[in-house]
Amino acid sequence: MRKKSFALAIICLLCIFTAGVFFSGCSIKVDVPDRVSENFVDLAEGAKMERKRAVEGDSFTLQFDGKKKFNTVSLTEIGSAVTSFELYINGKMVYASDRIGKFRYCALSDTYEADELTVKAVKCEDGATWAIEKPKVYFVEKTANDDFAVMSYIYTAKALQLEEEDKKIIGCTTQFNIFSSLYLLADGTVYFKPHTLADGRTVEGEDAFRQAIANLREFNPKAEIVATILGSEDIVGDGLDQEKRHNTAMTKNKDNFIKNILKVIDDHDLDGIAFDYEYPHNLITNNNYGNFLKKLKLAMPEGKELNCAFSLWNLTVFGTFPRSKLKYVDHIELMAYDGFDEYGDHSSFYTMCAEVLAKLEDKGIDMSKVNLGLPFYSRPIDSAAYWGNYNDYCHLLGEYGNSLMQTINVDGQEYEQLCYYNSRQLIYDKTSYALDAGIGGVMIWHYGCDTKDESLSLYGAISQAIADRSR
């Protein structure tokens, strides 16, 4: 008995220590490779660049040994002083963004021929000097393929209100995931939630779900349709938290739950089902979740998909989801957002793209299953509970802006705070990196936040990256 207690104590201490390391900001050390270098030649290999420390407003110029044709630049800063930078080719500004830091991947929307490339620090931390390693420069082509996924979460209410102009925006979608219609009950029932429309009419749950599917199929007949089953709401007053509700449905009542899931798939001709279980918090509940997914997948008809949303800590921290069960998951929807870095940016390129993908690969996860999450919303740098829609502020951000000072309202209190978005350029960069690095696809949270202005549309940035990487 004492040996068991001692072993349990050790496990608890390890869980606390590992979680503490993760949440304190001391991330697991993983080298982030410039994965493109494995497949493409660095055209800057013979180039020359003066190495020195510079101040805000200064530039470094990379001199090639002859004219080079390229469309991609990767940068590494010596330190982290730069807060805004620009790239110039043939005297023309072709790219701008915020930080360089440890690794920054700059995907250019055109292909250029030039004998030099200039990197300019527009702004730096107060009084700080800056320097960079010699940039790597590539001509990247034909990394897009038919298997690259563009999966978009879409709320049922939005799917019920699609308009003609949405058709142009959603054309590159390979899969829609209908969100907010299906809810699980502890007894294994799948509940269809009623929806209230803009005109005040209430539509019965299953009717709303059916119409949402019909609208999506009309607007994009080629896209697959799956639906997420949520367990986050106490629909019938069971008094359970979401972890207990999931556990009960997925263990004691798993057979009934699976039967009801299969019925929903069959009745609505879905291409699959998905879960957004946030989150099992210990070994037992994680194993319950993994065992249920295995049993469900084996019961599903051939060709039907089982997808799950995961964050990094679900897959890498001690005591989390059993990786052996990931083989029963068809797509890992990687929530690469709300992961605040040292600057308070919740979805920066380094932390929530290059580094997070490197960590998953380091753990041996099949990267062809991973859809990199792209946020179409902002979070304030103080990590307060505020989510701002990109479409409300895109014209202030422009093509390159990722941050904006806003008046936000948190728990009834208004104050000014810097909010971090992903600009059209940053979404283009992340999509290009996912393509060039051989990741399975991208995932959008969520469609309703995008603008219909084609020049600033984030969906448009994804489409453009795929088109440019198809040449």
Q: How would you describe what is shown here?
A:
It is a single chain. It is elongated and about 70 Å long. The model is unreliable at 1-30 (pLDDT under 50). It is of the alpha/beta class. The chain has helices spanning 2-23, 156-159, 166-169, 205-219, 242-250, 254-267, 283-299, 312-316, 349-362, 394-397, 424-436, 458-468; strands at residues 59-75, 82-89, 92-97, 104-124, 136-138, 149-155, 175-184, 190-192, 195-196, 202-203, 224-230, 272-275, 305-310, 331-334, 370-375, 377-380, 388-389, 403-410, 413-420, 441-445. The chain is 28% helix and 28% strand. The strands form four sheets. Strands 6-7-11-12-13-14-15-20 form an eight-stranded parallel beta barrel, surrounded by five helices.
Give a concise summary.
With 471 residues, this protein is α/β, with parallel strands linked by helices.
Present the secondary structure layout:
Blueprint: H1 2-23, E1 59-75, E2 82-89, E3 92-97, E4 104-124, E5 136-138, E6 149-155, H2 156-159, H3 166-169, E7 175-184, E8 190-192, E9 195-196, E10 202-203, H4 205-219, E11 224-230, H5 242-250, H6 254-267, E12 272-275, H7 283-299, E13 305-310, H8 312-316, E14 331-334, H9 349-362, E15 370-375, E16 377-380, E17 388-389, H10 394-397, E18 403-410, E19 413-420, H11 424-436, E20 441-445, H12 458-468
Parallel strand pairs: 6-7, 6-20, 7-11, 11-12, 12-13, 13-14, 14-15, 15-20
Antiparallel strand pairs: 1-4, 1-5, 2-3, 2-4, 7-8, 9-10, 16-17, 16-19, 18-19
